[in-house]
Amino acid sequence: MGETIDVAAEVIESELSPLSKAEQWLAEARDRVAGLAAQYKVPESIEGERAYRDAKASRASVRKDAAELDAERKAMTRAMDDALKRFRTDVKGVLEPLTDLDAAYRAALDEYEARWGAERRATLQGAYDEYAPDLVPLVPLDRLVARYGSERGKGWLNRSTNVEAAKAGLRGAVDAIAAGEQTIEGAVAPEDLDAARADYFSTLDLGQAIAGAQARAEQRERVRRLDEERRRREAEYERIVAEREAREAEAAPGPRPVRTGSVVSRAEAAELWEQTTPNAPKPPSIAEQVAIATNAPEPGRVPEYVFCGYGSAAQAEAFMEFCDRAGVSRRVKVPTNGRTYKLTTK
User: 40 exposed, middle or buried (CB, 10 Å; 0-12, 13-18, 19+)?
Assistant: First the structure.
């Protein structure tokens, strides 16, 4: 038989993880709570002072047991929170070499994409300069790309788009612009052609360019009609004034002609009064002229009516013209000079 050797087993306790400790405490706490709860029995009804004191003491004991367990729970929770904070910090440090590698790759990729994009743009610019040198100053490459070369999946600056396909798309866009220019030449008036083409080259929006030209043509026509109407009114005004001055010159050939409808000073009004009515007394004051007196003198006959009132310059001119047509004589137009007069009858 072999020799028997006695061996003493030594238990090596290793530090448990916070989570393991929490799970162990939770299992023990359940057993402890079950044992403590079994020690108590709540009476169905309290009868007498002694039963009251016993129930009160039992409740205090229950609250004490619960407080002890809750204190242990809080301590265990703090330990787990601290462990979680340490874990997060350690994980960040663990992952840092990988995150640094990711950032380095991203920078290299970005640098390549920027270089590739610049090379593709230079290639397209060269093709553009060669195919349509006259259009380049009017429509920059960026505008051409934004309008025709940004289609999803087929963009001229996409790495997935073949360079020859991008060049073909650019030539097609130039041809489309030329066709749009011809459409404008046939759709707008010659005087609006340059402005319409400038709008088109600035926006590459054919409909907007044509609509803008049409709007300018309509506005120009409105301005033309306005000027024509103003000239007609001015000619009509000059004709009426000339006719009135001619009639006044025939009625009083001696004195110098004065436009009856003009705004004159007091001295000029007095002189005009003497020239046109040499036998009449001196003209009244401004207030008396505005509120025309009912006994205005006229040789041989007293007029039946007199007129007085306020009005604008245009209204006064129209009233003078009416007086000419109606044969009303000895009317005077006097400026108010900002004063207000009370018009009364006697």
Answer: exposed
Q: At what angle do helices 141-148 and 163-187 cross, to 10 degrees?
A: 90
Residues 6 or more apart from 34 whose CB is under 8 A from it? none
pLDDT at 302 over 60: no
C-alpha to C-alpha distance for 220 and 212, rounded to whole angstroms: 12
Q: What range does the domain containing 247 cover? A: 188-251
* Helical packing angle, 163-187 and 190-203, nearest 10°: 160
Write out pLDDT tens, residues 243-295: 888 888 887 655 444 444 444 455 555 555 455 445 544 444 444 444 443 33
Question: What are the φ/ψ torsions at residue 41 (nearest 5 degrees)?
Answer: -145, 115
Count structural domains, the chain: 3
pLDDT of 176 above 90: yes
Q: For residue 78, what are the CA distances in angstroms to 15, 27, 82? A: 17, 18, 6
Final residue of a domain: which of 233, 251, 269? 251
Does 172 lie in the same domain as 202?
no
Length of the chain: 346
**pTM assigned to the model:** 0.46
Please report whether residue 14 resides in a domain: no
DSSP string, 244-294: HHHHHHHH-SSSPP--TTS---HHHHHHHHHHH-TTSPPP--HHHHHS--T
Same domain, 317 and 170: no
Specify the pLDDT at position 343. 62
Domain identity same for 168 and 26:
yes
